[in-house]
Design goal:
The protein is α/β, with parallel strands linked by helices. Helix content is 34%, strand content 16%. The protein is built from 7 helices and 6 strands.
């Protein structure tokens, strides 16, 4: 069971917390972590790329010149791929890149990602994260106190003051328990998580 320091918003250590081995101390499955990242990136693709083949390009119905006797290579249409303005060979068409992972694979991948951050000592626990209003400056001060430059902040409840305060900080993302994903965890240099969020994650994923 990993023992991690707990910090306040001023960056001072105020205690420790034991993280459950069922979530933060599992055997890391690199293959499923990779699959989970690939799945999220694939699911985010629009898949709307499109180009016209020779059958879809307008024009070109008339043979450009007679078959023999011109000295040119024979041509059947000005919309063949070798012509300027012609169709594209094996043109891309709209497609769906998404694929699914089952729930068990997703859970193992998420636990593996969290465990890797614990092993690398790239996870920080906050006793609480609350603001009186929407203040980006105050949120940045908390990050500076914790010495976090590029991170993921996981909170237990949808606190509008916290979420909106972080919205204009490009290097930081906020997420809730039900929206955390492997890609964001692995991409973050440091994962900052509140004590309440730790408890909820252990209840949900243990």
């Amino acid at each position: 069971m990993a023992n991690v320091s707990v910090y306040n918003m001023e960056g001072k250590e105020v205690g420790t917390i034991n993280l459950s081995d069922d979530v933060f101390g599992v055997e890391i499955n690199k293959h499923l972590v990779h699959l989970a990242v690939v799945q999220q990136l694939a699911n985010n693709r629009q898949g709307t790329q499109k180009a016209k083949t020779r059958s879809e390009v307008s024009g070109g119905g008339r043979k450009p010149w007679r078959q023999k006797g011109t000295g040119h290579a024979r041509q059947g249409s000005t919309r063949s791929p070798q012509w300027t303005g012609g169709g594209v060979v094996f043109a891309p068409t709209p497609r769906d890149y998404s694929f699914k992972l089952n729930k068990k694979e997703k859970r193992i991948a998420l636990k593996s990602a969290l465990t890797s951050k614990v092993i690398d000592k790239k996870i920080m626990v906050l006793d609480e994260l609350k603001f009186d209003g929407i203040k980006t400056k105050k949120f940045q001060e908390v990050l500076d106190n914790l010495k976090v430059t590029r991170g993921l902040v996981i909170i237990a409840e949808n606190d509008a003051n916290v979420v909106m305060s972080a919205k204009n900080i490009a290097s930081v993302n906020t997420t809730l328990i039900n929206t955390i994903n492997v890609y964001d965890i692995m991409k973050a240099q440091t994962v900052v998580i509140t004590k309440d969020a730790v408890k909820m994650i252990e209840e949900v994923y243990a």
